[in-house]
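Annotated sample (chain length 126).
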Amino acid sequence: MCKYADDTYLIVPCVNVDSRCAELVNVEDWSQANKLVLNHSKSLEIMFADRRRKRSFNPPSLIPAIRRATVIKILGASIINNLSVTDILLVMLIRNVQALRIQRSHEMSTDCIYTIHRSVVVAILT
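Output written by the structure step:
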């Protein structure tokens, strides 16, 4: 019987980028010690942009089977590699407007749509 560890995240700060190989080995050792399988083909690597650097830092992937992504989903939330709050807020607000258009097409009252929109936008922005 094989067991898999779902949703395991290894976060290594850019100042410690050279230690990521050792950290990944630690995760693999932990998985084997707990009789779990680390599936490299389902694993993703994301490199967050460091805005303080003049040029981008893009070291090669440690394991070829692990793909590098620009967006990952963590517990249903999409995390973008540039961590731009404006981009994330815009996507959320656009989805909100699309949902409200659908509600309007189903003949929901304007007052209800306004109340939903106001409460969702306040929740997103806070």
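Annotation: The mean pLDDT is 75.
Annotation: The chain has two domains: 1-82, 84-126.
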